[in-house]
Amino acid sequence: MELYSRDEVLDEAKKLANMVAHTDEIERFKEVEAKINSNKKVQSLINQIKAMQKQAVNLQAYQKTEALKKVEAEIDRLQEEIDEIPVVQEFKEIQIVVNDVLQLITGTIAREVTERIIKSTGGNVLSGETGSKVRSNSSSCGN
Question: Most buried of the four, 43, 49, 64, 83, by CB within 10 Å?
Answer without folding.
Answer: 49
